[in-house]
Amino acid sequence: MATSMSDVRKSRVAVVTGAAVGIGAATALRLSQAGFACVLADRVADVKRVAAQIAGSTGTATYANVVDVADEQQNIAFVRSVEEQLGRVDVLVNNAGVHPKRAGGKYPIEEIETAQWNHVLAVNLTAPFQLCRAVLPGMRYRGWGRIINVASAGGRTVSPVVSAHYAASKAGLIGFTRTLALEAAPHGITANCVSPGPVQTAMSGASSAEAIAAFTAAIPMKRYGDPSEVANAIAFLASDEASFITGAILDVTGGRFMP
Ligand code: NAD
After folding, report:
1. Which fold has domain 5-252?
2. What are the residue ranges spanned by the domains of the chain?
3. Ligand 1 pocket member 68 (CB < 6 A)
4. Model's pTM, two decimal places?
5. For this structure, is 224 an active site residue?
């Protein structure tokens, strides 16, 4: 599991799912730069190379686990193994997400198979629930924890490029996070959502060129976000400075979504 080892017992431990690319990889790098011992989880084995790269650039203990978060047993075993090997999970970033597209566009509801619906809900909503449930006892015991769930503007408002299963999963994640925040607050644990708008990653790149152009025109800042800009918001919510913020949704959209 270890790709490098400094004195990890002195560091807070942060787990980031979906950390092989995009927002997850940028978040792991940012948290690592902030001094967290980071555990990167992803279903693709390339996550090990990314963890080694981060360890090399920051000199902070960094670990990688291949985990399919759609599998409950893997989620339970993953958290148990981190707690056994590193002693704790202080920060959990539920970032892994899927948004199936067909021929450059969204799926109309009548073309969504139940299996695909279930998979989107499993990765985007059920996995965060299972991972939160697994880390809560340890955080409660230590009286400190930070949970950041990566939602989406597609779960905040309607969008012509967002499919119904993705919108439902992200809206559900926001509702889940609010209830979690309420239950966890007395124990020194905060739970918040970061809700990105269009960000330059493989996920957003799967849209057609026309859709990307139309989207860009509708963003007040006239550009897609960089993954590091979402990572900065996540790192803030993971920090001691965010001590009185819980149940919040931090929109990172270049002004695309304003409630
Ligand atoms: P991405 O597709 O670039 O990366 C997603 C990562 O999640 C990949 O590394 C992938 O392997 C991993 N993943 C997918 N299924 C998994 C599974 N079953 N188990 C473990 N890992 C799995 O996506 P991104 O753009 O970096 O998005 C990160 C998060 O941000 C997602 O939750 C996404 O919904 C959200 N988001 C992204 C955008 C955007 O424009 N990029 C906008 C709003 C919200």
Report:
1. Rossmann fold (3.40.50)
2. 5-252
3. yes
4. 0.96
5. no
